[in-house]
Amino acid sequence: MTDSPDDPLAGAQLDTLAIRAGIERTHEGEHAEPIFATSSYVFPSAAEAAARFAGEQPGNVYSRYTNPTVRSFEQRIAALEGGEAGVGTASGMSAILSTAMALLKAGDHVICSRDVFGTTTNLFGKYMAKFGVEVTSVPLLDIAAWQAAMRPNTAMLFLETPSNPLCEVADIAAMAALAHAGGALLVVDNCFCTPALQTPLALGADIVVHSATKFLDGQGRCVGGAVIGSEEHMTEVVTFLRTCGPTMSPFNAWVFLKGLETLRLRMEAHSAAALDLAHWLQARDAVVRVNYAGLPTHPGHALAARQQRAFGGVLSFEVAGGQDEAWRFIDATRIFSLTANLGDTKSTIVHPATTTHGRLSDEQREAAGIRPGLVRLSVGLEALDDLKADLQRGFDAIA
Fold first, then answer.
1. Which residues are CB-neighbours of 366 under 8 A, at least 6 positions away?
2. Quick one: which of 13, 71, 80, 274 has the fewest CB in 10 Å?
3. Are 220 and 297 contained in the same domain?
4. pLDDT digits 0-9 by tens, 199-228
5. For strand 348-350 and strand 374-378, is the pairing parallel, antiparallel, or unpaired?
């Protein structure tokens, strides 16, 4: 998307961009976006083939890094996030990996929130460290700890907000100021909010990453990821993609395009239902605490109200007793799907300590607040009364 006066989408609102951005109609004049199921492209001449491979002429080269359907998705998600460019990847984790491999080098230092998805912790702490990247893990909300961790070679700060699964909320503008003062990039995982509820780039972040598998798809159909930022940074990410190949498939890109068309409507519905359930859960005797920024009692409520347009569809709560009670609660439900995915029209339930964060050490889980009694919900679009009745089955099982 450009700011050209000839661009009909210049200044368009999110709902319009979610449906119209990134459309490149072919000579067939199709209305829906086509799926370009091709691995390669035919060149008019050897000279033109050479020019495209050298980057001297625009055009498709090979679907590992240039595909019209994927490009439509990239342009649309970049427009929604307010970025100059986007890159589609094979998964959310490959989006983070591609960002790290493209923009970091041996000897660089990364500060990563300890309040991130367990696999993100492993990617930075175990695998990036093998390539000479130093990693420091700090509490998401402890700005002083982030400041103290800054070094002359700090190149990147990485965080999720709201965090998974405790829904803690970071001040993106403050974190951006801290990163930029030290010459580092701020990378924000915007999976829980999506651009329908939060745009980190507008708050000062340099790069946004997504697991498109979650709310961007919205129906649990495909795996994919996205990276959004400046043309300069995204060129580096594309170069990594071209070389190493964690590529989004054209079919998956098409599914994500369809998901984006209803994104705001779904996110508002998810948020409204999650807020209702959070209040309902707070009133249950067996619940120790509810983690959801929409609750006025949540420490990050005021901040989330400022930098988000709603509070999202994911919440967690801790039941009294520990893992045995949490497992009995989960096993008693019949409507919620017991799966680690989230962001689906179908509500899901999971035990983070033994699934999404199961590969962390006991010490890492304790430091991150992932306690044995913690249960995470992704609130879908079913009738709220049915969801409450299903959760009541869980409470009855541990009464």
1. none
2. 13
3. no
4. 999 999 999 999 999 999 999 999 999 999
5. antiparallel
